[in-house]
Amino acid sequence: MDGWLLAGTTFLASAVEAVEALTIVLAVGVARSWRTALQGALLGFIALIVIVALVGPALRFIPLGVLELIVGVFLTLFGLAWLRKAILRYAGRKAMRNEDAAYDREITEMRAVDELHADRIATATTFNAILLEGLEVAIIVISFGAASPKALRWSAIGALIAVVIVIALGFLLRRPASRVPENLLKFVVGIMLTSFGTFWTGEGLGVVWWQADFSLIVIVLGYLSISLGLIALAKGPYSRTESQ
Amino acid sequence: MNIVSVWKFIVGDSRYAPVSVGIATVVTAVLVHISMIPSVVGEISLFSLIVVGLVASVFEKIS
To the nearest whole angstrom, how far is the Cα of B35 from the nearest Cα of chain A? Predict the structure, then answer.
């Protein structure tokens, strides 16, 4: 598989998670203090490293075919959920995700909390945000890099670049949330996750793909055209809108 | 975090998408183990069944 394609995919997927985590860290930093926000973020990052170090190597003992099947089914399910939401959003059947609203909500909640416990909650909030979103990035990196050490390296490079860029942009812009077009990012990531998932599910089951990895491009184009068609169809005069 | 919340986190709130992925996996597994059937049939059935799940999941709450 092409290394740059792999790195590009993990870059996009990781950027989504990084934007979400950074939104929470910025909100807590503004509402309480940068010390508590960064303290929680740092603790979350340390916990993340410990968990990945303990669990990550265990993946190597699973037979590749079984691993591809498990990861493929997982990615397909995960990707379909993202893709479905993105299609419904673009079709106007679901409210667009608004990171500004999430940011403001986070600040309001933080200010309402008793002063005595606010610092602890602030630290715990950023700790959880970094840990959970970081685990998602780790799963993406390990899933996409499961094929070989080289794939893992490309996968990690894509994720690392995404995280570094999002953090840098976040600190430069201060209010990063809505400035990154997250809905478009989620649509693209949904297609990529579903495509990789389909491809690896097939490989895990023993399917010999036509032209090997080139099939992946065909699958991506297939899902893209079908999704665009679904957006147009879902915009039609059907009845009610799905609630958030 | 229990298993149900993990499952919901992964698949979202669609009922049809996970069913279609399950059916696609089983059908493809059967097809690739029947030697007289070309592999391309397995490829197409896997992709098509997942697409059916995607279409169904998009329209399942738009009545």
Answer: 12
Percentages (nearest 5) of helix, strand, coil residues in chain A? 80, 0, 20
What are the Cα distances from residue A235, in Å, to A138, A222, A231, B11, B12? 36, 20, 6, 23, 21
Query: What tokens were used for A206?
Result: 């023993």
- Tell me the C-alpha distance between B20 and A14, whole Å: 27
How many other CB atoms are there within 10 angstroms of residue A168's CB atom?
11
- pLDDT, average across residues B48-53: 96
Q: What is the ipTM of this complex?
A: 0.93
Residue A174 neighbours by CB under 8 Å, 6+ apart: A26
- A210-214 long-range CB contacts below 8 Å, 24 or more apart? A210/B39, A210/B40, A210/B43, A213/A1, A213/A2
Mind telling me how many Å the CA of B55 is from chain A's nearest CA?
7
| Contact check, Cβ <8 Å, B55/A234 | no
Contact B50, B24 (CB under 8 A): yes
CA A192, CA A1: separation in Å to the nearest integer?
14
DSSP, residue by residue, A39-71: HHHHHHHHHHHHHHHHHGGGGGGS-HHHHHHHH
Q: List pLDDT tens digits, range A83-102.
A: 998 899 888 877 665 556 66
Q: Which residues of B touch A73 (CB under 8 A)?
A: 21, 25
Segment A217-227, tens digit of pLDDT: 899 999 999 99
